[in-house]
Design brief:
The protein is α/β, with parallel strands linked by helices. Helices cover 45% and strands 15% of the residues. It is built from 18 helices and 14 strands. The strands form three sheets. Strands 10-11-12-8-13-14 form a six-stranded mixed beta sheet, with helices on both faces. A four-stranded antiparallel beta sheet has the order 1-2-4-3. Strands 5-9-6-7 form a four-stranded mixed beta sheet, with helices on one face. Helix 3 packs across helix 13. The protein is elongated and about 120 Å long.
């Protein structure tokens, strides 16, 4: 119904690389499950799910708008019975925008108006349900919510309670809508009694007790006589069709009745189709109201679903800081919202993160393969994204300044269609980050420099870290690497800090503790991971000798 400009200054632009790397909408293998969207989608309506997708695609950059969503989630948490009642009613609402779209097209049918009617019924209870709401966003939605009662009344008055779904056959317009239609229907109803009387009279006149009266679309109405009684057929019967077991006839009286009743049925169908077209136009005039109510239902659906999720998954409300202060990101006992819900045979271990542009701007994270470095960095990025969509976060506490850009560069794959190797893809991503990051950005770098020779890779990784530290835009950065030589940077650059994911070395095994601790690691335990993968024992033993 309208076009509006998308205000880029109000939302965080997410590039396709970040959307893919964080598996927001689908995994690297194309699955819809085990994604952030799948976890956060507690919606009970299709329009709620679409609203959630839109909010995730365009995170907010305004503290006030985010606080309004947080307030709404908190209120929904407190009003448990009201929330459950609201969501119960919402679960009976079908896809209103899609229904409206179909009604606006020539292909609209009876089922579309019935879907609209059944969806409007639960809406009548919402104004009363939303009465106790007091937070600004929910008050705004509730006070101006239009349940479209007049549209529901119109559909109830114009359509039968259980109408036929075939537009071409009639049987869907309610009684009392058109006097002419009512008269035609009465004629059709009376015709059954007329036919019963005619059949009884013909049986008495002919003396054929087994005489039958039928109808088909080819021959119309007919009287059927079995071969046994053919010699008793009256002379005024006109043969219509010969069957194996009998004959079919028609009389002048039956023919006149047929013309009368068929013309009535044809006129009745034409009239119903015209009344349907008229009703469809009346509904279309309310399209704007319908779309606006659907938009508000979507907001209620997302926020009430997030309230339930926050209670069930133990999410907390983020504390947003103003950018006048030092830019910070502090998460206590943060968790990966997707992985913590998977059964991986071990409990999920939460971790803290404390980034601050003045003291801890760049975290160099070392540690073994499979220890959880990538998981930790992604969970930080996902929690930031959740906070800036207005959702509570998977942590014990959260304190942060808003992030204007979220960059990720993870282990890349090649792009052969564009003639780019794995390393070239990696360098493209890194270049985009370094050329666009600001002081309010969050950068996640995973294994930069691995696609080339060891010394080239170390040199690039070192130079990138140095650039991020020395650049005027002190973007908060998480950098996971197996180049343990980079640990030396913390001695020279004050805001680069070393952390590692702890392990416990046993006699012939390594236990991953999944805990981020201060200090750098000097071991990657690659041979141990090869053992976990089932590498032949002779290869493992030879690897140990070569390493030594």
């Amino acid at each position: 119904t309208s076009i509006r400009q998308l205000q880029r200054s109000q939302t965080m632009p997410l590039d396709e690389t970040t959307i893919r790397n964080l598996e927001i909408f689908e995994t690297s293998t194309g699955q819809k499950q085990h994604t952030l969207f799948h976890v956060l989608n507690q919606c009970v309506t299709p329009m709620g799910a679409r609203q959630l997708r839109q909010w995730l695609r365009y995170p907010l950059l305004d503290n006030g708008s985010l606080e309004a969503r947080y307030d709404a989630i908190e209120e929904f948490q407190q009003l448990g019975r009201m929330r459950q009642g609201l969501r119960e009613q919402l679960s009976h609402v079908q896809d209103l925008p899609r229904i409206a779209g179909r009604i606006s097209l020539p292909v609209a049918g009876i089922s579309d108006l019935l879907a609209l009617r059944s969806s409007l019924e639960p809406l009548q209870l919402l104004p009363k349900l939303m009465g106790p709401l007091s937070t600004p966003l929910l008050v705004e939605v509730g006070a101006s919510f239009d349940p479209l009662k007049d549209l529901l009344t119109l559909l109830e008055q114009r359509l039968l309670p259980e109408p036929s779904l075939k537009l071409a056959e009639g049987g869907y317009i309610a009684d009392g809508v058109s006097q002419e239609l009512d008269d035609l229907r009465l004629l059709t109803t009376d015709s059954k009694e007329f036919l019963n009387r005619m059949l009884q009279q013909e049986r008495e006149r002919s003396g054929i007790a087994s005489l039958k009266l039928g109808f088909n679309k080819v021959f119309g109405y007919y009287l059927e006589v079995s071969n046994t009684h053919k010699n008793r057929v009256p002379s005024h019967y006109l043969r219509k069709q010969t069957l194996t077991n009998g004959e079919r006839y028609i009389t002048q009286e039956l023919k006149e009745f047929e013309e009368k009743i068929l013309s009535a049925e044809e006129r009745s169908v034409e009239l119903e189709q015209a009344l349907f077209a008229e009703l469809r136009q009346e509904v279309l005039q309310q399209l704007g109201r319908l779309q606006e109510s659907a938009r508000k239902l979507a907001i209620l659906d997302v926020l009430s679903g997030w309230a339930e999720l926050a209670l069930a998954a133990n999410y907390v409300r983020p504390c947003l800081l103003e950018t006048e202060h030092s830019r910070k990101l502090r998460l206590q006992a943060s968790r990966h919202p997707v992985i913590e819900q998977l059964d991986l045979g071990e409990p999920f271990i939460p971790n803290d993160i404390d980034l601050e542009e003045e003291r801890r701007q760049v975290l160099l994270i070392t540690g073994p393969n499979m220890a959880g470095k990538s998981t930790f960095m992604r969970q930080v990025a996902l929690n930031v994204l959740m906070a800036q969509t207005g959702c509570f976060v998977a942590a014990a506490s959260a304190e942060m300044t808003l992030v204007d850009l979220l960059f990720t560069s993870v282990v890349a794959s090649d792009n052969l269609s564009q003639g780019q190797s794995t390393f070239m893809v990696e360098m493209n991503e890194a270049a985009a980050i370094l050329n666009n990051a600001s002081e309010n950005s969050l950068i996640v770098l995973d294994e930069i420099g691995r696609g080339t020779s060891t010394y080239d890779g170390i040199s690039i990784a070192w130079a990138i870290s140095e650039y991020l530290h020395e650049h005027t835009a002190r973007a908060k950065t998480l950098f996971a690497t197996h180049y343990h030589e980079l640990n030396e940077m913390s001695e020279t650059f004050s805001r680069i800090k070393n952390f590692n994911v702890a392990v416990k070395e046993l006699k012939n095994n390594v236990l991953f503790l999944r805990t981020l601790v201060r200090g750098g690691s000097q071991h990657s335990f690659g041979i141990h991971v090869a053992k976990m993968a089932g590498m032949p024992k002779t290869v493992l033993e030879r690897s140990k000798k070569i390493l030594k």
